[in-house]
């Protein structure tokens, strides 16, 4: 898949699978494949593996290669497979090359490890990784990688740069970046529990977003997306107030719950994927009970119940 084809396919509801671990915290490829098939059955527009939700930061290169290769085998070319990459430019390039060898269609490049850099440094970092592989590259704006419109315009001159995922949420900055590059890049909402900001991003012209809850309630994720894009504001607001808001409030109680609470959600729907690896902590029994209640209410809201 060339860069132009990939850019055109990065539209819609995007899935970011968790990485299942076994009892000894080892990667569980069998459950991973099963989980991917569960998600694929709900028809996401693209699959982003080994990203933030997939705990890229806790995977070694060997595990990463196995996971990306398994995802490509399960997808069988039906939708794009994008693999996360990060750390410094050298390591990020190694991961990007590994993703290419495993058959991925592109790479989601997360912020450089630890440091805050000037715009020229950010430009050189992303340019270096893009030069290490011919497959498509997506910028992830968040944390210590916040871009000016002029830097994104320069990066957009790189032929295999295909997308811009925004996890920062500054609508003015995003609007100026979009004006700077036009339709050269595919833009995606990458905020935590992106559904809560989907209306604002849609107002800024960005309809595609990453849905973490797609991991355990793809039916709710799909219902909300269809309501949002189809003009069913009543259902969209019911789900926002009755499911997404209480889920986000639970997510915000502890650092790292944006990941470990998603895994807990998968476990709560009778598909074991293990716990999050340290340094993340996992929800308490009381929090798990609360999560199950939120899931049950969300499912009821789709049929008009639980108002």
Question: How would you sum up this structure in a few lines?
Answer:
With 307 residues, the chain is an alpha/beta fold. It is 48% helix and 11% strand. The mean pLDDT is 96.
Describe the fold and architecture.
By secondary structure, the protein is of the alpha/beta class. It contains 12 helices and 8 strands. It has an 8-stranded parallel β-sheet. The N and C termini lie far apart (45 Å). The protein has a single domain, classed as TIM Barrel. The radius of gyration is 18 Å and the shape is globular. The mean pLDDT is 96.
Q: In percent, how much strand structure appears in the residues?
A: 5-15%
User: What is the SS-derived class?
Assistant: alpha/beta
Helical segment count: 12
Secondary-structure arrangement, i.e. CATH architecture: Alpha-Beta Barrel
Shape from CA axes?
globular
Q: Provide the CATH top-level class.
A: Alpha Beta
**Main sheet attributes: strand count, strand direction, barrel closure:** 8 strands, parallel
Our count of domains comes out at: 1
């Amino acid at each position: 898949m060339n860069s132009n084809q990939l850019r055109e396919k990065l539209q819609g509801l995007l899935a970011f699978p968790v990485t299942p671990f076994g009892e000894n915290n080892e990667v569980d490829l069998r459950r991973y494949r099963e989980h991917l098939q569960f998600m694929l059955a709900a028809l996401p527009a693209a699959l982003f593996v080994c990203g933030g939700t997939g705990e890229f930061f806790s995977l070694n290169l060997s595990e990463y290669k196995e996971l990306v290769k398994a995802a490509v085998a399960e997808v069988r070319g039906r939708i794009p497979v994008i693999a996360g990459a990060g750390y410094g430019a050298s390591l990020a390039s190694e991961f990007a090359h590994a993703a290419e060898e495993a058959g991925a269609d592109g790479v989601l490049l997360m912020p450089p490890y630890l440091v805050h850099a000037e715009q020229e440094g950010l430009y050189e970092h992303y340019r270096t990784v893009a030069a290490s592989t011919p497959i498509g590259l997506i910028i992830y704006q968040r944390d210590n990688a916040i871009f000016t419109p002029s830097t994104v315009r320069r990066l957009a001159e790189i032929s295999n740069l295909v997308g811009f995922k925004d996890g920062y949420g500054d609508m003015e900055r995003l609007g100026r970046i979009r004006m700077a590059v036009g339709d050269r890049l595919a833009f995606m909402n990458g905020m935590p529990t992106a559904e809560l900001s989907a209306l604002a991003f849609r107002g800024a012209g960005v309809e595609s977003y990453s849905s973490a809850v797609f991991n355990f309630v793809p039916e709710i994720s799909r219902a909300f997306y269809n309501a949002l894009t189809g003009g069913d504001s009543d259902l969209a607001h019911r789900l926002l107030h009755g499911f997404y808001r209480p889920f986000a409030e639970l997510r915000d109680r502890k650092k790292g719950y944006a990941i470990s609470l998603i895994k807990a959600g998968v476990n709560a729907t009778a598909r074991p994927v293990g716990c999050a690896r340290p340094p993340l902590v996992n929800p308490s029994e009381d929090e798990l009970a609360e999560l199950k209640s939120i899931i049950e209410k969300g499912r009821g809201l789709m049929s008009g119940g639980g108002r």
